Amino acid sequence: QVQLVESGGGSVQDGGWLRLSCRASGFTGGRYCMAWFRQALGEEREGVAAIDADGTTHYTDSVKGRFTISQDNAANSMYLQMNSLRPEDTAMYYCAAGVYVADRFAPIEYKHWGQGTQVTVSS
Q1: Measuring CA to CA, which residue among 11, 6, 26 is closest to residue 120?
Q2: What's the Cα-to-Cα distance from 110 to each of 29, 88, 117, rounded to whole Å?
Q3: What's the CA gap between 104 and 118, in Å, rounded?
Q4: Taking CA atoms, which of 74, 93, 99, 114 is between 20 and 30 Å from 26?
């Protein structure tokens, strides 16, 4: 059974940084696409960054140049380095994993989800 556990959220000032981690377990094979999503209060869940099994990365426009997604296969972990944080980045951040993902930023494509970690950026 696949399990994803996020950590690293917190509260920072505008312009600050945070590094989120997602530790994965239970993968039994297949080429997984991993991604970070976020959901602000009252908003729909949106894709932030994704990384393919071959290491190719993808970002939504609002975080390009500020966020970096990476993975460490030996540690079964994925990371999201978030720099130059803005108040509009405030949200619950979720780690997700899926196989044969067609649309990397569509939540429905991902079968496995973590419980989320809160990121709050104050002005």
Answers
A1: 11
A2: 15, 24, 18
A3: 22
A4: 93
DSSP label at residue 18: E
**Whole-number Å distance between alpha carbons of 85 and 110:** 26
Angstrom CA distances, 60 to 25, 29, 38, 48, 73, stand at 26, 27, 11, 5, 23
Q: Do strands 117-122 and 10-13 pair parallel, antiparallel, or not at all (unpaired)?
A: parallel
pLDDT in tens, 39-77: 999 999 999 999 999 999 999 999 999 999 999 988 899
| Beta-carbon count within 10 A of 88 CB | 11
95 within 8 A of 69, measured Cβ to Cβ? no
